[in-house]
Write a structure and sequence with these properties.
about 230 residues, alpha/beta, Rossmann fold, 7-stranded mixed sheet, two-stranded antiparallel sheet, 11 strands, globular, binds guanosine-5'-triphosphate, binds magnesium ion, EngB-type G domain-containing protein
């Protein structure tokens, strides 16, 4: 099994709230309600590890989940019902970020998240993959273009202290009824794909790999795990 155990570690609101950088990690970013927390649950085979909501703005911190650490009962550090572990050979962190662009989040809060994200993407040395989640039905929005712009400015800059890979994940592909037949649920419309490529080009993020997923049907799980292994292997 790829995932033996996962537990919530901490919710960070600034760099000093992040756990010790002692293993690889991957981050899930994207606009509010795109399905970040749902995907984290699907990938880790959990129903409610990361909290999900119909209402945008559910995730309010940088939530750290440890995958495949060893339960360390001696430490007796309990978070909810879970026991924090110690690092195992193939352990890594998944970081679920607050969503972008939710109107009801106050401007001050948004600015704080945005600044934290800049600093995080630039300086977190153990960051291996940045997953940007985009809704498969509607393709990249204004908000997504802003995220790409941010990532494009950081990736490959002299300030960047990691060699994080940038990967696009299309979410909710099960709902992509217009273009996908039941025979081929992973098919995303040409117009979404083209728009995605245009937006990538305009924001200088290179041509990132695109993975089509559904948290509902578990489509794309193995493909995303190929990237998660990049974080687990160091
Ligand atoms: P924030 O934390 O607010 O940024 O949202 P999020 O990106 O974490 O989204 P979340 O996982 O909470 O999901 C938002 C809504 O989309 C929920 O109602 C989910 O049930 C739904 N959803 C997420 N993934 C899928 C999917 O693959 N298919 C379908 N049909 N619905 C999904
Ligand atoms: Mg969330």
């Amino acid at each position: 099994a790829l995932v033996r155990r996962t537990c919530f570690v901490t919710g960070a609101v600034g760099m000093d709230g992040c756990p010790e950088a002692d293993r690889g990690e991957v981050a899930f970013i994207g606009r509010s309600n795109v399905g970040k927390s749902s995907l984290v649950n699907m990938l880790t085979n959990r129903k409610s590890l990361a909290f999900i909501s119909k209402t945008p703005g559910k995730t309010q911190q940088f939530n750290y989940f440890a995958v495949n650490d060893k339960p360390d009962l001696a430490r007796q550090i309990r978070y909810g019902d879970e026991v924090l572990g110690s690092k195992d050979r193939d352990s890594f962190y998944i970081v679920d970020l607050p969503g972008f662009g939710f109107a009801k989040v106050p401007q001050k809060q948004r600015q704080e998240w945005s600044d934290f994200m800049d600093e995080y993407l630039t300086t977190r040395e153990t960051l291996r993959v940045i997953f940007h989640l985009v809704d498969a039905r509607i393709g990249p929005t204004e908000e997504d273009a802003k995220i790409m712009h941010k990532v494009g400015a950081i990736i490959g800059s002299k300030q960047q202290r990691n060699h994080a890979k940038y990967v696009i994940i299309l979410t909710k592909a099960d709902k992509n009824v217009k273009s996908a037949s039941s025979k081929n649920p992973g098919k995303v419309s040409e117009s979404v794909r083209n728009k995605l490529c245009e937006t990538m080009k305009a924001n200088k993020v290179g041509y990132a790999p695109i993975v089509v997923t559904s948290a509902e049907t578990r489509l794309g799980r193995d493909e995303v795990w190929r990237y998660l292994r990049l974080a687990a292997e160091q």
